[in-house]
């Protein structure tokens, strides 16, 4: 058949994994084509994920902080919310970043083909071209022949089959559109994405209920971190219903009437103006005709890979959300680099000792490496060092001393194997813990590192000193 383009490396999907892989591939001298169905690069993360959520969370965090200033003798009036302008700000942040990516692709001579790609065989992809702002198919098709391919087709929100189709029932993408501020909102799913959006909308004035099937929020975080978050946020939400699932929903004139089952379930259905479904994400593996290329996709839609990001087909790689948990942008980026390097013939491996997680809520909750629960479950003997922010001059000066910093050390080797931080800026602070774990630092290395005073970052050094039993900033 006819071939419209040829390349050494074809990358399918332009999220953080895909664009990172394509840029590294081009930097390594390989001719590279990047296929993306949407009009902008950046995937979920830049367009409908990490970045827009943080633009909104920053705004609402400032709103919340301003309210506390009256305690310092500074008073402001009630906020006046111009929702169109707030949406515009969020969109301008996305535009700046996606525009930057387009420029970077061009500078590297990465060819971007806009359309929906599917494999024809192990060396050809067919792309149905798309147009408009979104993903409108044109019916026009192009065929690309490649030597190597990197699958980076990402994931999408899980749907709850019993929910009716209604504009008031949305996923994270719909919630980020910020169409209006609902009076009453239900968030189904108490994971990071659900809690971040609940934080934004509650500050904007919505009364919010959260339903979570498990017995705790923020699965994956150490329980003591989450407890601090929960205590601080006790007044923020109307009901946090644990061990509870939404079981039925009816579209009514005055809202969506939702019934619940489980320990926290109210007896009556509750009516909401907006229902956010945030119950997880599912990989796009079944939508790319991977079988035509001989690439194995498991029953859930994940593409299995080895530690060089190779699928079962030697010259086809896969990266990012489509290869498995944790579905996080920074994991996708690093995997993308490995795939491109291996495609170029380098001996690269994805062998990270840790992949950090952050809930950018208020306070933030961040963790890296092993949690205490994981150590216990795996039977790893550990020691810990804890520094409560109630003893941090900076946290007290900031008026936010509810948090703590915890480091976890292997009891035998004394090296750091994990850490968790809850408090303002925890997401930025966890970076030092990540580096310490990768470098195999022990408590002496961290404790003897001079940290600037007075900072929140100091709490990492002080937690290490606490682990050594000689923190002079603690009683
Ligand atoms: P994606 O970003 O999913 O990109 C895949 C791309 O491939 C998409 O652009 C899609 O259009 C395209 N595509 C798929 N199939 C085809 C096809 N057949 N043809 C052409 N194009 C195709 N992660 C963090 O690390 N930090 C955060 O703060 C964070 N916040 C988040 C907040 C929200 C609300 C959400 C939803 C996610 C968040 N994430 C966050 C997760 C993060 O967005 C993902 O882990 C990341 O985007 C995965 O990158 P990826 O490259 O694997 O795929």
TrEMBL record:
Enzyme Commission number, as recorded: 1.8.1.4
Cofactor, how bound (note): Binds 1 FAD per subunit.
Cofactor (UniProt): (R)-lipoate; FAD
Keywords noted in UniProt: Disulfide bond, FAD, Flavoprotein, Lipoyl, NAD, Oxidoreductase, Redox-active center
GO terms for MF: dihydrolipoyl dehydrogenase (NADH) activity; flavin adenine dinucleotide binding
Gene Ontology biological-process annotations: 2-oxoglutarate metabolic process
Catalytic reaction list: N(6)-[(R)-dihydrolipoyl]-L-lysyl-[protein] + NAD(+) = N(6)-[(R)-lipoyl]-L-lysyl-[protein] + NADH + H(+)
Protein known as: Dihydrolipoyl dehydrogenase
């Amino acid at each position: 058949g006819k071939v419209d383009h040829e390349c050494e490396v074809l990358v399918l999907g332009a999220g953080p994994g895909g664009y990172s892989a394509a840029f590294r591939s081009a930097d390594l001298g390989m001719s590279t084509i990047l296929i993306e169905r949407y009009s902008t690069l950046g995937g979920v993360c830049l367009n409908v994920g990490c970045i827009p959520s943080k633009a909104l969370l920053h705004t609402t965090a400032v709103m919340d902080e301003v309210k506390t200033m009256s305690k310092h003798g500074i008073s402001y009036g009630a906020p006046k919310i111009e929702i169109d302008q707030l949406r515009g700000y969020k969109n301008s942040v996305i535009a700046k970043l996606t525009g930057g990516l387009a420029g970077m692709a061009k500078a590297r001579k990465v060819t971007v083909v806009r359309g929906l790609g599917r494999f024809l065989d192990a060396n050809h992809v067919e792309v149905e071209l798309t147009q408009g702002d979104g993903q409108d198919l044109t019916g026009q098709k192009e065929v690309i022949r490649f030597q190597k391919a990197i699958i980076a087709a990402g994931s999408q929100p899980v749907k709850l089959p019993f929910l009716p189709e209604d504009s008031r029932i949305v996923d994270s993408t719909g919630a980020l559109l910020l169409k209006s501020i609902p009076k009453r909102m239900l968030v189904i799913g108490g994971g990071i994405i659900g809690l971040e959006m609940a934080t934004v909308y509650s500050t904007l004035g919505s009364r919010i209920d959260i339903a979570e099937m498990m017995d705790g929020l923020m699965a994956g975080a150490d329980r003591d971190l989450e407890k601090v978050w929960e205590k601080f946020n006790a007044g923020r939400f109307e009901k946090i219903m644990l061990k509870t699932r939404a079981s039925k929903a009816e579209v009514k004139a005055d809202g969506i009437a939702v019934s619940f089952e489980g320990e926290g379930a109210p007896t009556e259905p509750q009516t909401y103006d907006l229902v956010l479904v945030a119950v997880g994400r599912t990989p796009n593996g079944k939508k790319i005709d991977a079988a035509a290329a001989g690439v194995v996709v498991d029953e859930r839609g994940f593409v299995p890979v080895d530690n060089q990001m190779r699928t079962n087909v030697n010259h086809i790689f896969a990266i990012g959300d489509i290869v498995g948990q944790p579905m996080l942008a920074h994991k996708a980026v690093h995997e993308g680099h490995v795939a491109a390097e291996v495609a170029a013939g380098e001996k690269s491996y994805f062998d990270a000792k840790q992949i950090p997680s952050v809930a950018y809520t208020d306070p933030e909750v961040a963790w890296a490496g092993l949690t205490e629960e994981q150590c216990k479950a795996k039977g790893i003997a550990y020691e810990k060092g804890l520094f409560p922010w109630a003893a941090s001059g900076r946290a007290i000066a900031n008026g936010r001393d509810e948090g703590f910093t915890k480091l976890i050390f292997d009891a035998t080797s004394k090296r750091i194997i994990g850490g968790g931080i809850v408090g303002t800026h925890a997401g930025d602070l966890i970076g030092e813990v990540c580096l310490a774990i990768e470098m195999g630092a022990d408590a002496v290395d961290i404790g003897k590192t001079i940290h600037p005073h007075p900072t929140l970052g100091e709490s990492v050094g002080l937690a290490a000193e606490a682990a050594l039993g000689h923190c002079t900033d603690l009683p």
